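Troubleshooting log. The previous structure file for this entry was overwritten by mistake, so regenerating from the original sequence record. Sequence copied from the archived sheet and checked twice against the printout by T.R.
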Amino acid sequence: MPLLSRLLQRCRLLGWLCALASGDLAVGANAPLGGSGELGGFSFQTWQTEHGLPQNHCTAVVQTRDGYLWLGTYNGLVRFDGARFTVMNTANTPGLHSSRITCLAEDQQGVLWIGHDGGELSRMADGRFEPVSLGTNWSGGNIIALSGTPDGDVWLLHQGGGVVRLRDLRVFPPDPAIKSPTSVSLSRGADGQLYLLHGGKAFTITSEGLRLDPDLNARGEFLTQACPGRSGSGLWVAANGRLGQRKQGGAGLDWRDAPWGGDYVTAMRESRSRVLWVGTQARGVFALTPEGRWLRFSRTNGLNHDWVRCLGEDSEGSIWIGTGGGLCVARSSFVSMVKPPEQLQGRTVLSIHATPAGALWLGTEGAGVLRWEEGRWRSFGTRDGLENLFVWSVVTGPPGTVWAATWGNGLFQLQGERFVPAPGLAAEQVAMTALCPAADGSLWIGTQKGLLRLREGKVDRWAEDWVRPDVRAVAQTRDGSTWFGMSGGGLGRWNAGELRRWTQSDGLSSDYVWAISPDPEDDQTLWIGTFGAGLCRMKAGRFATLGEAQGLPNSVITHVVDDGLGYMWFGSHAGILRARKEELIRCADGLVKTVSFYSYGKADGMTSTECSGGLQPAGCRTPDGRLWFPTTQGAASVDPRAVQRNTFAPPVLVEQMLVDGSAFPISGPKTGNPASPNATILRVPPGNHRFEFRFTAPAFSAPDRVRYRYRLDSLESDWVESGSRPMASYGFLAPGDYTFRVLATLGDGVWSDQPAIVRFTQLPRFWERWWFRVSLGAGLLGGVGLIVYAATRRRYRRELERLERQRAVERERARIAKDIHDDLGASLTRITLLSQTARGDLDRPENALIDIDRIHATACELTKAMDEIVWAVNPLHDSLDSLVSYLGTFAQQFLRDAGIRCRLDVPLQLPGLPLTAEIRHNLFLAFKEVLNNVAKHAHATEVRVSLRVDERTFDLEVVDNGRGFEIPQTLRSEGAPGSETSHHGIRNVRQRLSEMGGGYELSSEPGCGTRVRLLVPFPNSVRA
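Regenerated output below.
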């Protein structure tokens, strides 16, 4: 290389390094994508500040093992999951040294290392950031690169060319022969060997220091970048306009010319598909295919900026390109787009059909008819005979026959290179929306006013009088039936002159039918695409719906086609959809609940995801097997034979667990085996909480395809289909251990190998703990036992009381019987005897009169005894008031007959306390015995009867003013036996009161009268 050229190159590199260090290199204006440039099977997508980036200078890109894509900018670190950017800077992330980031690298332990343009270093592990000290030997300067090695070391390169091993902070100084700042880069070979490119020379990095590599420097090229190769290519090296390759295990380099000329190479990477990507400073990115073909991508055909700062590859094989204008990704394109010529861009393609020779005919919205054949366009407009450029349907028939249906100006037929009005339809001005050539040469035409058939210049009409006969789809089956779908009128069939109609009332999912496809393998089956109600299958007259609940990504189906390879394809407003036909049939038969649909959109090369619909033909299949779909930005094509089943399942992570709306601290995203002893178990405080889990699945090829399912163990046994919604919520979980699991898929039925998990324990309140429940249970059991015991005891007590009452009744009956026998029986016997005596003394009147007097006296005594017995057994007198009243009346009458004055001292108001008949009877007999003793022995002139009542007893006292007597010792002791018959009545009184639980007191002195106290307790039931 001439000396002047070398000096100019070094000056330019110096300027580039200065701009890189400052981050202030000017960004050229972004040119919009245009034309149909050659993209070589790749599609591009870009992100800038309006999409969430903090700055458009993307300096570094790396994907970590958890699936996230990390981006470096001069305004913060960015985490990207394919759908959302999360920005971390010094304002919101403690531990991050600086927001100006120049390089990123992940080591073998999963630690993310972050280099800053001020010479600082940070690291992130388990979601936590911390600054890293580089020791006293660190001279500072912009950190250009970081790289990890298989042995676990991490190496750092600064702009002066010095290298630092972070394990022991050992500094390897640059070659002293290289003066002034110049190009510097750090690369790792396929074998793990580190290479330093400094000053155009290559050095290997060893534990002893830097060593000049003789093989790489043999040609004297000014080396700028290197990267490891794949599949036998050990190392790629870039120089000025040259590219060198060293084979695995080989020596020296094989050089070839490169298309970037003298531009500086800023980044290199060989993808797993063996495409070498080379980023440059001013000419965009170049791609070398395995076939040796070079592709260039710049602002004109994919990139957002021509200055490439960094390159990276994700786990799906996409190439990420950081530029001076933002972030860009290049993906392999499964969908090919054929765009109209430049002057016709912006016009929607409404209908598309192919000739047997492979030529495509397109009907457009305002651009007439287009023909694309052998890579060339031919347009047909008003100058070519079309009276209306809004061509809603275009179809080809026999060789050379092309029909074009317009909006309101009738049907046109191609003759030569010019369209003319179709014969027989010149007067038809109705909008024609569907065309279907028949096997007999006739043409079926769908219009807004019904179905037409054009045959040999003659027009037949059907369904004109139906409600909403707006025909949008027509198809013929092998049995000769013509099926037609209407926008609002349902499904119709014409067969041998007979018409029949099906609507929602017959099971059709929607009356808006936009596509009809007879099943080529089953004459009894139709596949029906609807507007707003998904896919419907009609089999043997019965309908089955497959909508969003069955996994369909979009409910507007514009076209249905069977590829003959076991799959069915659908045009929709959410891109092109694909599903296994066997799954569709099983779901329609009710054997499975959902179908795995795979969708193709912008990530696969489509410039618009909305397929045109409501017109026919809304798609076609060419003789080479390719499927074509009209879209709002051109015609999309897919080769079903080249499509492989997607087996990539994105990693899924739980980013947040919210408890009552507040983030619950978790140490980084969780994934893995919940049975692992290292799995974190979160402890949620007691209470009624609402739980919300937010998760993500980093999927960069098509984030809109991600679908989730989740399950909360201990609460749910089946997976809950979440669709594209990355969250799940639960309310008021019972105390216990829970494991939340979530899976993700990109379609084709391939779910994540390992669910993301979060294990947590909902702690119980104290009354929800086991010991409290055991205690409460024991208490309840004890309480129940006590209740049962009390109830049983009460029942036994009632039974005893019943038996006692029965026994008392029996005693009372026995007493009454005894009284009747003793008193009434004896008196009646006496009356009988006296009557017999009086009968014998009739001849002696004086004796008979004595007997009659005795009979009368006995009858009076008998009457009194009967009165006493009746009073004793009458329940109306079972009260203290009645007893006292009876005793007072009896005492006055008895003492009056005995000639003794009676004084009563009784309270005016007595409590209505109940007394048993037994107590009344015994007390009356005792009282009677006391009065009888007074009448017989006291020689008293006055007797005072008094009553006192307290809470437990009542006291009946009888006091006379008689002569009194000396009380014998046998009567002073209540239990002392006595033989004196004269005291037998007193003992009877004492015994009666003792049986009632009462007491008897006797006091007397000669000449001082006698006082007797009868103490009677109230029954227990009364006192209670």
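The two ends are 126 Å apart (CA to CA). Archived copy saved in two places this time.
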